[in-house]
Amino acid sequence: MKIAVAGATGTIGTKICTELEKRGHQVVPLSPSTGVDASVLESLTPALAGVDVVIDALNHTVMNRRKAEELFKLTASNIAQAAAENQVKRIVCISIAGVQDAAVCRGYGYYSGKAVQENTYKASPVETVIIHSAQWFEILPTLVKQVTFGPVSVLPTMKMSPLPAAPVAQLACDIAEGQMNIPDSGVISIRGAEEGTAAEFVKRILAARGEIGGKHPKLVWQLPYLGSAIAKGGLIPDPADRTDPTTLNDWLTTE
Predict the structure, then answer these.
(1) What is d(CA 98, CA 47) in angstroms, rounded to the nearest whole number?
(2) I need a surface site. Which of 2, 30, 93, 244 has the fewest CB within 10 A?
């Protein structure tokens, strides 16, 4: 198959491209570095010529609610329009569990943008499957970098069921290949085997490695500054269609 990947150079986009190539597919990477900007329809439409499936793994790291919503709506609209014009069979969108809950989005503009992205695809003429993923272990170092001030990390109180990004990438590839029965909702969810707060997982990484994301905080605190819904587990898909068995300890031994 010929499969285009938007956000091909990102954390999960690179894993998706690698997995697709391993399975023998022709990969069309869509990113500014390859000359294709999903926010510009004129550059996107010709790039999808002959493409069977598009996987949207874009990550607009914008925290402002209005800007996040505008960006995610623009790129999703462009991908949907370009896909329809090129008779693409299916779009697969990597999203986040819980973003359709207004209480979850209230505390974090980025999640509101993801909700708008999902809704844009649901209105698309091209069949779209949305993956509701729990958080990835890979986001924890990035999060710590953002919230560490000297020897102190002040994490948001965030109950989570993390998993590696790789199984999510594999799921996206399975869906792209048409290997799975898709629920009528068009949504498939995936989570990790363990539950805990972001602070608890960060402390375990620090205990094992002595650092995280290049930081060496002596104190790890948590405060519910992203809202009570996120603090209480609003980002955990329950029940989930898939549960990846990889624990944090497993992941630490392979990374």
Answers:
(1) 32
(2) 2
d(C-alpha 240, C-alpha 20), whole Å? 24
Instruction: Find the farthest-apart pair of alpha carbons in the chain and give their distance in angstroms, rounded.
Output: 54
Query: What pLDDT digit, counting tens, does each position of 44-55 carry?
Result: 999 999 999 999
Give alpha helix (H) positions in 7-97.
11-22, 41-47, 65-85
In tens, the pLDDT along 3-40 reads 999 999 999 999 999 999 999 999 999 999 899 999 99
Burial class (CB in 10 A: 0-12, 13-18, 19+), 59: middle
pTM above 0.90, yes or no: yes
